[in-house]
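Let us work through a complete example step by step.
Step 1: write down the sequence.
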Amino acid sequence: MRRLFLVVLGSAILMSACSASSPAASSAPTSAPTAAPTAAPTAGPSVVAGPPDAGWITFAPAGAGFTGKIPATPKLTTQTYQTEVGAAPASLWSYEQSNDLAYFFLTANYPAGSMTGVAPTLIYNGAVNGMTGGSANLTIASQTDTSIGGQPGQIFELTGTTASVKGEIVIVGDNLFVVYVAYTSKITDFTPIDAFFTDFQLNP
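Step 2: predict the structure and record it as tokens.
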């Protein structure tokens, strides 16, 4: 949700949920005292909610090294960054579901062998710190070590005055993967966000 941070949600749309309520049924009193009592209405069939990622597409860009699910086809942006260890091509796939919610996949490919011997925590801390500040004025709320696809990774959360970010980050060899979601306080149902992370898998 690049626009989320560039305009800081200056024109965020209101998210609304529609709920249907059924009026209470009324029954006219029977005049005959010998009339059989009316049977209690039987409950209708229960509605079973589908999974939070129902209808999402499976997303596995060729050569990217990961598979995930996302509500719709994301937009790809590419850029090559000059780092201390050399050029690092990066790809960002983003899908802005609304001005209050967006999903991202990010990969960065460092020069071959450049990450050998580098502690993953140093890489993760640098990447997460790089997401702070900016127009959204994000700060680190939490960072937790975890395992992602059998690799040591990290879960992070950033909070700001206009938006927050939740994400996961992992490095495999010289390839960095970041999957994250940006959202505003209007988002109260986090089950789709949790599903987005659960669906993310590293390709062997």
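Step 3: interpret the result. Residues 77-187 form a domain with the Protein Transport Mog1p; Chain A fold (CATH 3.40.1000.10).
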